[in-house]
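Journal club side-thread
Mid-discussion, someone asked how the predicted structure for our own chain would compare to the paper's figures. Pasting it here so we can look after the session.
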Amino acid sequence: QLQLVESGGGLVQAGGSLRLSCAASGQSFSNYYMGWFRQAPGMEREFAAAISYSGVGTFYADSVKGRFTISRDNAKNTVYLQMNSLKTEDTAVYYCAASTSLSAMTIATITAGGYWGQGTQVIVSS
């Protein structure tokens, strides 16, 4: 079992920044690809970013590319999402996720056999 706990959400004005953190416990953190997904009100959950086991490889949705940066610290069992130039459309609950590979970093696969955090709310005001 891997437990994931997000923190760092809150209210920010458009154009501002936030850094989300996801602390993992229970299993070997470095054995997992880590990712961030988000779910806006009335919308389906969507992929935002993912990072490889060592942190060398990073992957982003087009909607956040160039504004968000995912990183990880395997010594601290923590993954981060630095969010800059925030827009009102970034308002969502942000979920941390763990999967065994990049190809498994999908909502269905994570729900079936990966791990989700409980989510942290981000609200971007205009």
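Post-session note: The chain has a mean pLDDT of 96.
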